[in-house]
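pipeline/complex-builder :: batch 7 item 3
reading input block
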Amino acid sequence: MIYFDHAATTPVKPEVLEAMLPYFSEKYGNASSVYKLAQENKKAIDNARRVVAQLLGAQPNEIFFTSGGTESDNWALRGIASSLKEKGNHLITTKIEHHAVLHTCQYLESQGFEVTYLDVDENGLVTAEQVAKAIKTDTILISIIYANNEIGTIMPIAEIGKVAKEHGVIFHTDAVQAVGQIPIDVNRQHIDLLSLSGHKFYGPKGIGALYLRRGIKIPSLLHGGGQERGRRAGTENVPGIVGLATAMDLAYQNLERKNTKIKALRDQLINGIYKRIPFCRLNGHREQRLPNNVNFSFDFIEGESLLLLLDFEGIAASSGSACTSGSLDPSHVLLALGLPHEQAHGSIRFTLGEDNTREEVDLLLEKLPPFVQKLRAMSPLYEDFLRKHS
Amino acid sequence: MYSEKVIDCFMNPKNIGEIEDADGVGTVGNPRCGDIMKIYLKIEDNIITEAKFKTFGCGAAIATSTMMTQMVQGKSITEALKITDQAVAEALDGLPPVKMHCSCLAERALQAALWDYAQKNQLTIEGLKPPESTTEEPEEKSIEE
């Protein structure tokens, strides 16, 4: 199989698995206990926390382990809303957030909060000026996705962070797709809260973290024992925590070299598709884009049917079509770019990984054009188009 | 997610294309929900002698188009009208719940094509209703969560 869906999830690296394994069996102690077996696990957690903190330019006591990106996003938004509700009830976000942020915002609206959803331009960007303009006296939180999971557009995070800081508003970023691919410094970029998830950078599923700037108080999402310094209850997922830190550490080793290779494959794919397939459009910003993301809309066809044809050839990718989202509407991200519904339905995302090769991209470029042609040949939209232009 | 039959009807679709001198043509669906189905029928002495389709849509939409056009071939108009979305779905060994609207689309496309035939020939076909407008916006029907 050729796997081009690394934004969905990544395989756990052998080194990561190896680091995790002892914590399932011989090192099974509950880190809250007093004996040696337990205390060694506490050390492993502390060490992992140091690694994660260092890679973000943060302090260890600013890192809290969670069950993943969704929990981190929920905790950040609901936590700030709850602790600052006396100060104000206005939040600012974008129209292209991941559902973990978008649906949490909708929940907060149902609880009486007001949310501004900023428009993005045709490339998926918001500007710091837009954010500044949306800030009101009762704004308590700005939450902007670091890099979009569908189209790969990277937001001007440092500039937005600066605006937030100047206005004294707390700034959260959902960095689930960015961590492990882009160097991040929470202080230089003025980030107050940041969500990350282990399985997006060759770590395990079910583990994530929230960076919470020192001095910012948010109530617990999960109540119970005193784990994570009383902020996030529940016996620590020690293998997960060790796996996340090991994977994140590996992700940032030789990052530039790895990104150069992945970007070359990405550009080979983008240029190859443009060269071989007429009537298509690259979604997302051409330069300000994750190194591994390629997202195309192919006119006149629907994304899921193209995914099925590719799957039959052993090629895994994903689509923003309604048929893959469980709803009749296509991706909210593609609609926010201004794409008409039929183009949004006809989108395909390929996200590359460290192990993908030139040959695999070549094979995709060989398979894709006849598949698109096959589906166009049975499309009434293509028939109409040809009739109009003949 | 899909039965083997759906996959087979999708990978090896039958009856794709247009019929130049079709006796009835029906188009249903709209780009908003990502499904458009166009069915062409050739009808002689009340018998559907040929059925072809063009579909913009997901795997299930293409598979149901194939199945529907195969099922109506050789049938009388009365028999064809008895083919329900349920029957098409069953012939495909079932569809995932979120895809059931695809089989409804096939049923509606067939009825729209028969309606077109009836209109052209000034016939009244018992049990046949005019097709719903295909240009209107569909209801917001999110089946998420």
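note: The domain at 254-388 of chain A is CATH 3.90.1150.10 (Aspartate Aminotransferase, domain 1).
queue -> next item
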